[in-house]
Amino acid sequence: MPLKNKVAIVTGGNTGIGKAIVLELAKHGVNIVIDYVTHPEATDALEQKVAALGDKCIGIDADVSKVPDLEKLIGAAVAKFGRLDIFVNNAGIETRTSVLDTTEDQYDAVMNINLKSAFFATQLAAKQMISQGDGGRIINITSVHEDWPMPGNTAYCLSKGGMRMLTRTAGVELAPHNILIVGVGPGAIETPINTSTMDDPAKLKKLDAAIPLGRMAKPEEIATVVSFLAGDGASYMTATSVIVDGGLMQSSPGL
Ligand code: BGC
């Protein structure tokens, strides 16, 4: 499907990888709905940037971990743009806490924002797409940690592992409706989630050394993969993940 005039929802779209995805999809002529719980001003600024690209973007006050708010997001896309073609489950948080010191509140926050939101967004987006009758795309932004342990970030890894299986299982379930579901697993990306690493030269040096390409990625380097997956060129990809990590998961200490 050519992306021009398609309608997308990108959760967590006003910062980090989500913001880059919004701008990349807008470049291709997609109309976009994003949510915000905090930073309405960042959403306003982004709406204006997207409008300057000739496309439309609206921000909706919605907490993606709540099902009625997800319904509100989809309702807004349909009310404003008439349909929904692409849903990007991008919103995510991490606590950087181990299995020994993660509190119940931290666990709930990570699982609800990362995994519960992706599950119910998939359910609701799929129902809307099925009612339209011509398929759709759901793209789950996971992490290399959908399949690779990050000691000291256990709940996060759990949530991303869950998204990996959501992608696979729902991808199989929804294939008869031509709803294609693919996960994108970024490695280390220059976004606010990684500020503590980027601000610490010793930590950053260690991280860069572990990445075969020798550097963190820009959010735009993930966004271009997402726009490919949303478009015609990815018409035979579903129930799988694309890892975009500069080789990080395969790096070897040189045995
Ligand atoms: C995590 C980061 C981590 C990166 C690479 C991301 O999913 O959010 O904290 O640096 O993976 O390990």
From TrEMBL:
Q: Mind telling me which Pfam families this protein's record contains? A: adh_short_C2
Domain of life from the UniProt record? Bacteria
Q: Does the keyword Oxidoreductase apply?
A: yes
Task: Report whether Oxidoreductase shows up as a keyword of the record.
Answer: yes
Give the UniProt keywords, A-Z: Oxidoreductase
Top-tier EC class: oxidoreductase
Q: What is its EC number?
A: 1.1.1.100
- Give an example GO molecular function: 3-oxoacyl-[acyl-carrier-protein] reductase (NADPH) activity
Q: Which InterPro entries match?
A: NAD(P)-bd_dom_sf (IPR036291), SDR_fam (IPR002347)
The coiled-coil segments of this chain are none
Q: Which family does it belong to?
A: Belongs to the short-chain dehydrogenases/reductases (SDR) family.
What protein does this entry describe? 3-oxoacyl-[acyl-carrier protein] reductase
User: What is the species of this protein?
Assistant: Methyloceanibacter caenitepidi
High-level lineage: Bacteria, Pseudomonadati, Pseudomonadota, Alphaproteobacteria, Hyphomicrobiales
